[in-house]
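The records we work with from here on pair a chain with its fold. Each token is a code from a learned vocabulary of local backbone shapes. A record is reproduced here so that you can trace the correspondence yourselves:

_____
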Amino acid sequence: MAKTIRSKPLAILIISLSIFLLLTLHFPSVSSLEDEENDDEEYVLDSPFVGNQLSTRSRFLIASSIKVLKKGASCNAKTNPNVCNGVSANKGTGLLYCCKKHCRNVLGDRNNCGVCGRKCQQWQRCCGGVCTNVMTNKNNCGKCNKKCSRGITCDYGVCGYA
């Protein structure tokens, strides 16, 4: 009788872990709702940044003007003046601002959502500059711009979770 009492908690633990692993593998968006800081990401500027002295620059310098910015690029007024102050990027899906001396996309950065310094809460992502609960929002289910079909609800970040 003592053997069966001890083995039941172990069996329950093994079954619980198995279910958790299956759910995690089947619904990866639910288990990874936190945005990871990926400073290797790049922003493709919609119009190249040339600087304040366009008329005094040669054709070569204009052609080699900044067209791509690395995420988190420095925006110190002394080294890169106005490099990301309201600059549109990635075909209008990004809007770059200088937040704490680094370029940030205020339309998608959960630590600078809409404006510099506005942090989204747990289970929220910055979707178009608005902190959105992606666990229940049918237009942003699990991640931004993932819409559930008509009549299907978003539960736990999954469309039609049963």
About this structure: Strands lie at 42-49, 66-70, 87-89, 94-99, 102-105, 124-127, 130-133, 154-155, 158-159. The first helix runs from residue 2 to 26.
